[in-house]
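ZP: hey, is the 6-diazenyl-5-OXO-L-norleucine complex queued? I don't see it on the tracker
AM: it wasn't, my bad. submitting now with these inputs:
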Amino acid sequence: MDIKEIVQSVFDRTKGIEDKGKLASYIPELKNVDPDSFGVHISTTNHLNFGVGNYHDKFSIQSIVKVLSLAMAYSLLGEDLWHRVKVEPSGTAFNSLVQLEVENGIPRNPFINAGALVVTDVLLSNLNNPQQDFLDFLKNLSKSNSIAYSNKITASEKKVGYRNAALCNFLKSFHNIDNDPTDVLDFYYKMCSIEMSCEELSQLFLFLANGGCTLHKNSRIITRSQTKRINALMQTCGFYDESGDFAFRVGLPGKSGVGGGIVAVHPKEYAIAVWSPPLNQKGNSYKGMRFLEEFTTRTELSIF
Ligand code: DON
């Protein structure tokens, strides 16, 4: 099978379809991207690297970072983390508040915003210099040296972060946030603002296809068991109330972000990143979903 040929041909076909998505508008700065940008990059455990389209361009990874903040918090806290956040799909939107009250302030999973805020709080409590330490964690995972926060995106989200502020304060009222909510929110927005390209993302996520070790330096980041569990969470919760649909159509663990990026992982085989900014109604990249569906159909490289 010629993976490069399949990536190229699925890319060409997907580029031609009508885009029914819309740019995220609730974070003003996210509207300032070219909606026609479209890039794909695949990195495999046997060292194939291949990209098409705008795969070198950096974009705001947004919620994709929640997998990485989780990996770091899990490596610091181990299984105690699951006293603060559960591992069930929510069936609700990424920024929903409805379950928190009835479930006593314990978020359903670490990928909805409520769960990611708890993970952020764990990082704040356990790191000496959270912003720098988190960036160093990513730099250790990555072959690239140019991963950075975007101050512009951070400021833009902070200005309109009413829902996240509500979530964080609500969590605090249930004693599931230890730090000052303002500090938790600031660090959360910072992490979501990180910019990476499809090439950087697919290479960075390879540790989840490689049993928890980076491929380029063979350095262990998390245990094999933790790797399995993070992949399981991406499979069941990575696309919020569209997680079932993604499993059904694509059949891979994955994570989306409102910047229009999606990363998907085939344990033992590959990591693939797609970026197309317009989003479907559930907040996931319209063309990204379409590309991955056809890619796993053509290659038969889904986990099912
Ligand atoms: O908190 C937010 O709303 C954003 N910083 C991240 C949301 C997001 O990416 C949802 N993913 N599809």
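AM: back. The chain has one domain: 3-298.
ZP: great, adding it to the tracker
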